[in-house]
């Protein structure tokens, strides 16, 4: 019986010794790795900011033309006014659109309007009195062009008197007035790797 007991104690001792040796060996071959850092949530002016960088108005003939001041990175609307006095008159707005933000922006198209006449695929819209022509930035393709941070593009909007335009008669006659608008459309682009 004693022999059996010594034998069992020896086996228990050997097993415990094996567990201790394996634990020490495992500890010798284990390592903890840690990653630490910070995350910043940027304000919307730092992350998404497509705006006009510049705008200037010029005139042809007897027309008068004005464009509102542009503050780069803050201006999202330009007021462009044109007064036509003869059939040889024209007004031109030249502007630049820029991505001031940190998020890539995909150009998805534009909408050109003269009164109730809207064009989304044509670069011209007209009525009996005036013709409005939009020249989009070079190489901009709808749903393809992506503006990364600091990318920009120049555009032109021209308003011309139509040949044979009719002007209001008399000093008290009210001026003909047409609303012209050009809306650029952008959406967040897929991130690039």
Task: Provide structural commentary.
- The protein has 193 residues and is an alpha+beta fold.
- The chain has a domain at 46-165 and 176-188.
- Helix content is 16%, strand content 37%.
- The protein is built from two helices and eleven strands, in the order ααβββββββββββ.
- It has helices at 2-28, 44-47; strands at 50-60, 64-67, 80-83, 90-99, 105-114, 117-119, 124-126, 130-135, 146-147, 152-161, 180-188.
- The strands form three sheets. It has a five-stranded antiparallel sheet with strand order 1-4-10-8-7, with no helix packed on it. Strands 5, 6, 9 and 11 form a four-stranded antiparallel sheet that branches.
- β5 and β6 form a beta hairpin.
- The longest helix has 27 residues, at 2-28.
- It starts with a helix and ends in a 5-residue tail after the last strand.
- 15% of the residues are buried.
């Amino acid at each position: 019986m004693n022999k059996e007991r010594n034998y069992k104690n020896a086996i228990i001792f050997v097993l415990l010794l094996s567990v201790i040796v394996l634990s020490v060996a495992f500890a010798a071959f284990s390592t903890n790795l840690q990653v630490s850092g910070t995350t910043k949530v940027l304000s919307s002016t730092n992350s998404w900011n497509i705006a006009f960088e510049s705008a200037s108005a010029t005139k042809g003939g007897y027309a008068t033309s004005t464009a509102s001041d542009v503050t780069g990175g803050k201006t999202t609307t330009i007021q462009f006014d044109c007064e036509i006095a003869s059939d040889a008159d024209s007004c031109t707005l030249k502007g630049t659109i820029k991505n001031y933000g940190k998020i890539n922006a995909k150009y998805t198209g534009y909408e050109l309007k003269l009164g109730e006449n809207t064009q989304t695929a044509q670069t011209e819209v007209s009525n009996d009195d005036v013709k409005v022509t939009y020249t989009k930035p070079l190489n901009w393709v709808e749903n393809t062009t992506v503006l990364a941070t600091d990318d920009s593009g120049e555009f032109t909007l021209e308003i011309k008197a139509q040949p044979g335009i009719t002007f209001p008669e008399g000093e008290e006659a009210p001026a003909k007035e047409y609303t012209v608008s050009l809306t650029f459309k952008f959406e967040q682009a897929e991130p690039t790797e």
